Each structure stands twice: as structure tokens, then as C-alpha cells.
Recover the amino acids of this structure.
């Protein structure tokens, strides 16, 4: 029970990778704040699963790009839990990974980039800043940001999405340098294509086969595959690891 | 293996009673044998040290004594020397300090007793150190000669490795026959050092003894207290009061009681770049020797108005203490020490509940940091890496906060601009602070420092003056008088 008595905030935890991460922390005894934006029913279902796995769960609705909403969430965590050990910035702006119908560079308006920056960097910025006082209360706190292996290897050029994730990696490294002297670690997990999720539902079989063929471990990532490395980076097993990006893509990217 | 402590010239080791004590730390253990002298043996030892000092040490040039101390130190500084290896092996087990702390501490401390430092040390206290070797002309006219006591007794305390060498060296430099009483918590280094001196210059070795008795035990200490001309003693005020009561009125008593160190951090030192480096230095001062030294900081006064707030600085210090604990683990604490920390923490936790304080770290962390936003007086912490940071509007408030503890003041660590350093220095000197050091050097006084503001060598000597008119008058009795 690696996370017994530990409180973990997972943003965007009502579905997909976020839900898998929340459940994995719960299975290790953690008290998981299941953050979601709109789907209260799904978040409640994740919370129920978390409790069944032996953890605790507290669903809180908040748009992570809204400073007010996030401040209210921090307030609620402070009141109801009184501590926070881990923040997983998993939520991101809605995106469809559809290789066949993706917009090419000259077709992408700046607004799309801007929206992705909001979803990746502004969300991580807003949540990290708001949660910092809580994280500082305990020793050994850490932040894990979910990036993408596309930053290192743009197998398919999803310009706006990947550029924002690249910015998130840079953001994380700077934050790691700033918060290290305060005892807080900051790392990234960079999954490859994770299937199945709502976002990757439109990725065609042929593309998936192409990626699988180039992946040494010969399959795509599942949401549960991402959870393990997130837990590792959040645990004291990774107590001397900060500013790193851990690729979780079966060896497609080796860096 | 049994390690015999002490240095007992002229006594037959076989004929002595030895008290065995066991020490264990870092997965190893050692048995020490401490000498317990009966009254006749103690009296004989005092007599022989005094006579030898009178006949030999007093007639030596100071330079020869300096050379012997320098040579003994060179061996202890040589990491391949068997005694140095033994010190690095046994001191962590006996004192509980981790190996790295002992190794680094020994080197940085011993190197302050090399020949150049010893000469500086002499020059620090004597305008003309030659007064220790013979009458020297003085500026006002006449001649001056200084003599150390014939028999100087050191009563050591505490577990900081090799701390005893400080007063032992002072005694030797003024040619005092010296007997040192080992501290039960570090009963090794003084004996080793004395043995080295005896090996290097056997004549000096005859003028020096290192003994032990159980603290406060009448039978053990009486012969020594009776025989000594001067007693230099370390310990709590209770111990020192008891000791003073047992000394003859003619005996000079030089006590060094417990002290509380503190630090002051000015807003100019708290920018984004300097603050973290400074936090590291402050944490170093706290961790080194687990605040057992008189110079260790227990409180830091941190000024508001820098880019880094006092609360943020407290967190930086806490994280540095976490990092230091990996390299220098805190020594295993005795039950009473853990209780002292728990007691201090719970007082702070109660205040934290009321919002008056912020307690950083968990009870399981090998350090405790508390931070308060309202000014408060200097106060002792739970020791063993417990630190309180007090936010102040201006460092000018600090002298008033520490002044009530005048008798316990010694070292102040200051991080502030040169102008403020001297301004604050004036105020601190007025209220009894005797040493001002930078953060990071609080536990490492420089060579020739004035312990508790005293002249370490000058305090030991008595001077004999030949007044100018005496010399003139004697001219009248000269065989060459016309």
C-alpha cells in the first residue's frame, strides 16, 4: 500500500487515462480527488470503483483552466482533506486523434494552438499554483504532468496538440528547477498512442498497425499502462528523480 | 576489542582499575576502558605532572611546544596514519555522529592547530609572545614575563569530536602542566593526542595527563580539584556551580557554560538566487554536530522585505535539512533526546493549531523546522536539528529579542550587507554576543578565536613585572658601577 494516507489529485479523472490513474492510486490505498469538468455521473462511478479497490475518493468538479474554479477546488481539498501529496495534471483540451482528417499546418488557425496551450500549459500552471500551498505542507510531495511521446517523435503531426505538450515539458522542467529546493518533484509521463480512449477512438486500424509494427513491444498503450509510471514518479521510489520525462510507448521513442 | 582511554605517565596500567563502557552505533560496537584512579594514584599523578612541568615544560622554548603540537596534528590530519584511521572508525561509534561528519569535522578542526595557526594564536593574545620564554621589555618601560599555571585542570563535556583539544592546546602553549578529565560522551581524542605528544616529545608527554572520573563522584575528583591551580571547565550551569563550590578559594576557575547560538538574515540576502544558497549554509550549521556545540544556531531571525519571504526561506531550509540528512544522517537519539524533540514539536504544534506558528515536516523526519510570523524572544529548541525561524520587520528588532539571555549568548550568524553587519555588530557586542560568523561557518570558529569572548591564553597566565625603577635601582648594585 504505497499511497496509504496520501492524498492525490488527478485532473480529468472521470474517464480514459485519468480514470485509470485514479484507480491505480486507490488500489495502493490513496485518497484520490477525482477531478472532472462536466460528467458528474462518470466521476462518481470512478469514485465508487476507487473505494471498491481499497482507497478513498472525493469527486470535485472544476474546469482546470479557470483560476476561480481551481481555487475553489483547492479550498475544498484543504477543508475536507487538509493535505495533498501528489498532483497529476492529466486533463487536456478536447482533441480528436484522427490521422485521416487531421488539419495540416496551413489549415490550422492560431486559435487551435491557443486552445491547446490553454488545455495543457495553462491548466498545469493554474492547478500547480493553486495547489502549491497544500503540497508544501508535507514533505515528499510531487507533481506528474501527462505529456506525449509525440513531442519527441511526431509520428503524426498534430501541430497544435503536440506543440502545447512540448511547452508542457518545458514548463515542467522549469518547475522542477524551481520547486526542487522546496522538496517538491516535478516529472512528466509521455505516453504513445493510448487506445482505447474517447480521444483516440477515431484513429484507424491501419495507423494503429503502423505504430505497432514500429513499437518494440508490439502493441499500443492502454490507460492502465500509463498509470504504473505515474505512480512510480509520484512515489518515494522516484524520490531522487525530478525534471524527467518518462516515455510509456513500448519503446517507440527511446530517449 | 577494548580501547583504553587516557594518558597516564608514570602510572602502571596493570595496577589501575578500568571501568568498561559499551558504545554502539551504525551497526558496530566498541568497548572502552576508562581509568578510575584511587586517591593515592590521583595525588601521585598530580604531583608528578606538576613537578615535571616545573622542571621541564617551564624551561622549554615555546617554539618547541608549538612544534610538538604541530607534529601531533600532522599525524591526526594524515588519513593514512593508524591513529587517524582509528579515530575515523571509533568516534562515529562512540559519539553517534555519522562517519562523514566525523571525518570532515576532524580535518577542518585539526587544521586550525597547525604551526602557522598556533603562532597566530600566540600573537593574538600576546603583543610579544616571547614573554612566555623570558622577561621582555614593555612599552611603558620595565620588563614583563608570563607564566601559565603549574597545574591546569580541564574538565571537558559533550560529545563533539576532539573539542577537548582546544583547551588542551591552550594549556600547553602557556607551558601549564595539564591534566584533562575526559567527557564520558567523547573520551578518546584527548588521550590519543596526549599519547602522540608523548611519542613525539617524551618530555612534554611527562607534563600532561588525561584522566577520567565519574562526573560528580567525590572520591574520584577530590584529589584533582585540590591540586589544580586553575580549572577550566565545560558543562551546564548546574554542573559548573557544583564544581566551583568544591574548589579552594585560591584556585582560578574559568567556566564555559551552555550557550545558545542564533542567526540573522537580512532582506538583502533574500533574493531568488542567494536565498537558496543561504538556506543550505544555515541548514549546514544546524546539522553539524546536531546543535550540540555552544556555537550552533537554534533560532534564525529572518527579515521581511526580500523577494523570498521568511516563510519561503523556512521551506528552503527544511528541504536543505532533508537533503543533508541523506549525506549526514542524524545520529541515533537517546530516549531523553527524542523526548526533548517531541516535547518541543508538540508545543509548536499546539501553537500551529492556533495559527501562530507553522510546523514544517513530519515527526518521522530527522529534523524539525517551525516558522513564526510574530517576533519572539530567543529560546532554546529541542536540539538535534530542530530550528525555529522568526520573521521580523527589521533586523534592528533582534538585539532586544536576544538581550534577556545575555549569559547564554555567544555566536551570532549574520547574513547582511557590510554596513548593516557593523551596525548590528555594535548592538550585539553591547548585549554580550562574543562571536559573529557568517552562516555556514557558525560551527567552525577560526584559529585563534576568543572563546566566550575571553583571551584564551591570556586568561591562563600570571604576569610578573620588573618595574622600570627596579631596573634603574639595580644599576646601583652592579659590579661595574663607577
Amino acid at each position: 500500500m504505497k499511497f496509504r494516507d496520501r492524498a492525490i489529485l488527478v485532473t480529468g479523472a472521470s474517464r480514459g487515462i485519468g480514470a485509470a490513474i485514479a484507480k491505480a492510486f486507490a488500489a495502493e490505498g490513496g485518497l484520490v480527488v477525482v477531478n472532472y469538468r462536466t460528467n458528474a455521473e462518470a466521476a462518481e462511478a470512478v469514485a465508487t470503483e476507487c473505494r471498491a479497490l481499497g482507497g478513498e475518493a472525493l469527486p470535485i468538479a472544476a474546469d482546470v483552466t479557470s483560476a476561480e474554479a481551481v481555487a475553489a477546488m483547492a479550498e475544498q481539498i484543504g477543508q475536507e482533506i487538509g493535505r495533498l501529496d501528489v498532483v497529476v495534471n492529466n486533463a487536456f483540451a478536447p482533441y480528436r486523434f484522427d490521422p485521416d482528417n487531421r488539419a495540416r499546418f496551413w489549415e490550422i488557425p492560431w486559435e487551435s494552438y491557443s486552445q491547446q496551450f490553454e488545455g495543457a500549459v495553462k491548466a498545469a500552471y493554474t492547478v500547480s499554483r493553486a495547489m502549491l500551498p497544500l503540497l508544501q505542507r508535507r514533505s515528499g510531495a510531487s507533481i506528474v504532468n501527462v505529456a506525449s511521446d509525440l513531442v519527441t517523435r511526431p509520428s503524426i503531426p498534430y501541430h497544435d496538440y503536440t506543440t502545447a505538450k512540448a511547452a508542457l515539458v518545458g514548463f515542467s522542467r522549469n518547475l522542477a528547477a524551481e520547486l526542487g529546493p522546496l522538496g517538491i518533484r516535478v516529472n512528466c509521463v509521455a505516453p504513445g498512442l493510448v487506445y482505447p480512449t474517447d480521444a483516440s477512438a477515431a484513429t484507424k486500424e491501419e495507423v494503429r498497425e503502423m505504430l505497432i509494427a514500429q513499437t518494440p513491444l508490439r502493441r499500443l498503450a492502454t490507460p492502465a499502462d500509463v498509470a504504473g509510471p505515474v505512480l512510480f514518479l509520484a512515489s518515494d521510489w522516484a524520490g531522487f528523480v525530478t525534471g524527467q520525462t518518462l516515455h510509456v510507448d513500448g519503446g517507440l521513442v527511446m530517449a | 576489542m577494548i580501547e583504553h582511554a587516557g594518558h597516564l605517565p608514570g602510572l602502571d596500567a596493570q595496577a589501575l582499575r578500568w571501568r568498561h563502557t559499551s558504545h554502539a552505533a551504525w551497526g558496530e560496537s566498541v568497548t572502552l576502558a576508562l581509568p578510575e584512579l584511587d586517591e593515592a594514584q590521583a595525588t601521585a599523578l598530580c604531583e608528578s605532572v606538576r613537578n615535571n612541568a616545573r622542571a621541564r615544560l617551564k624551561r622549554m622554548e615555546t617554539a618547541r611546544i608549538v612544534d610538538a603540537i604541530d607534529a601531533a596534528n600532522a599525524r591526526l590530519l594524515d588519513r593514512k596514519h593508524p591513529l587517524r584511521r582509528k579515530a575515523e572508525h571509533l568516534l562515529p561509534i562512540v559519539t553517534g555522529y555519522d562517519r562523514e561528519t566525523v571525518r570532515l569535522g576532524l580535518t577542518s578542526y585539526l587544521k586550525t592547530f597547525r604551526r602557522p595557526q598556533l603562532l597566530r594564536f600566540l600573537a593574538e593574545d600576546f603583543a610579544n609572545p616571547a614573554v612566555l620564554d623570558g622577561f621582555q621589555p614593555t612599552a611603558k618601560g620595565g620588563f614583563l614575563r608570563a607564566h601559565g599555571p603549574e597545574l591546569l585542570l580541564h574538565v571537558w563535556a559533550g560529545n563533539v569530536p576532539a573539542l577537548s583539544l582546544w583547551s588542551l592546546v591552550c594549556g600547553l602553549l602557556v607551558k601549564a602542566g595539564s591534566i584533562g578529565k575526559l567527557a564520558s560522551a567523547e573520551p578518546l581524542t584527548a588521550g590519543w593526542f596526549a599519547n602522540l605528544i608523548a611519542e613525539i616529545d617524551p618530555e612534554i608527554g611527562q607534563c600532561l595527563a588525561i584522566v577520567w572520573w565519574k562526573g560528580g563522584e567525590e572520591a574520584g575528583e577530590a584529589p584533582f580539584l585540590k591540586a589544580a591551580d586553575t580549572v577550566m571547565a565545560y558543562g551546564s550551569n548546574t554542573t559548573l556551580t557544583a564544581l566551583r563550590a568544591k574548589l579552594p578559594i585560591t584556585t582560578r576557575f574559568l567556566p564555559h557554560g551552555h550557550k545558545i547560538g542564533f542567526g540573522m538574515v537580512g532582506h538583502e540576502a533574500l533574493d531568488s538566487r542567494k536565498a537558496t544558497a543561504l538556506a543550505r549554509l544555515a541548514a549546514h550549521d544546524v546539522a553539524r554536530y546536531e546543535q550540540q556545540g555552544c556555537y550552533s544556531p537554534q533560532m534564525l531571525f529572518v527579515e521581511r522585505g526580500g523577494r523570498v519571504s521568511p516563510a519561503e526561506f523556512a521551506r528552503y531550509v527544511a528541504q536543505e535539512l532533508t537533503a543533508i540528512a541523506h549525506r549526514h544522517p542524524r545520529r541515533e537519539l537517546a530516549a531523553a533526546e527524542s523526548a526533548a524533540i517531541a516535547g518541543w514539536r508538540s508545543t509548536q504544534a499546539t501553537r500551529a493549531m492556533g495559527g501562530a506558528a507553522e510546523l514544517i515536516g513530519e515527526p518521522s523526519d530527522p529534523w524539525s523546522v517551525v516558522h513564526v510570523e510574530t517576533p519572539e524572544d530567543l529560546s532554546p529548541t529541542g536540539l538535534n536539528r530542530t530550528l525555529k525561524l522568526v520573521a521580523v520587520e527589521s533586523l534592528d528588532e533582534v538585539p532586544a529579542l536576544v538581550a534577556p539571555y545575555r549569559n547564554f549568548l555567544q555566536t551570532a550568524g549574520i547574513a547582511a550587507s557590510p554596513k548593516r553587519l557593523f551596525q548590528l555588530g555594535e548592538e550585539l557586542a553591547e548585549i554580550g554576543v562574543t562571536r559573529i560568523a557568517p552562516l555556514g561557518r557558525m560551527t567552525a570558529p577560526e584559529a585563534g578565536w576568543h572563546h566566550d569572548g575571553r583571551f584564551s591564553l591570556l586568561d591562563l597566565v600570571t604576569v610578573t613585572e620588573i618595574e622600570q625603577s627596579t631596573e634603574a635601582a639595580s644599576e646601583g648594585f652592579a659590579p661595574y658601577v663607577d
Remarks:
- Chain A is about 45% helix and 15% strand.
- The two ends of chain A are 31 Å apart (CA to CA).
- The first strand of chain A starts at residue 7 and ends at 10.
- The domain at 7-248 of chain A is CATH 3.40.50.720 (Rossmann fold).
